[in-house]
Design brief:
Elements (H helix, E strand, L loop, with lengths): L1 E3 L8 H14 L4 E4 L11 H11 L1 E6 L22 E3 L1
Parallel strand pairs: 1-2, 2-3, 3-4
């Protein structure tokens, strides 16, 4: 199951709780979350977002975009699930 969150969905505590709730509801299905807002994978929050994905078995979606594209999550080349990897071009 692929969840795609819009660019205005920040990593605020309420949003993070919503993501965790979605992951719990979808268990035992493999889920992937596509974060569009840069706060999810910023230098400040990258570690906690990836840790949450690993702990809950969420597939990290690697986002790639041409240089100069703004209003997007950073590209983080990291796998959080042994079952699946997804790269969005």
């Amino acid at each position: 199951m692929w969840f795609q969150f819009l660019h205005w969905f920040t990593s605020a505590p309420k949003a993070r709780a919503h993501v965790e709730h979605c992951a719990e509801r979808m268990h035992p299905f493999v889920t992937a979350f596509d974060f569009r807002h840069e706060s999810w994978l910023s230098e400040k929050r990258r570690h906690t977002t990836l840790a949450m994905e690993r702990e809950r078995g969420i597939v990290h979606i690697i986002v790639d975009a041409p240089g100069g594209v703004t209003k997007r999550a950073h590209t983080v080349w990291e796998a959080t699930s042994p079952e699946l990897a997804i790269m969005r071009l």
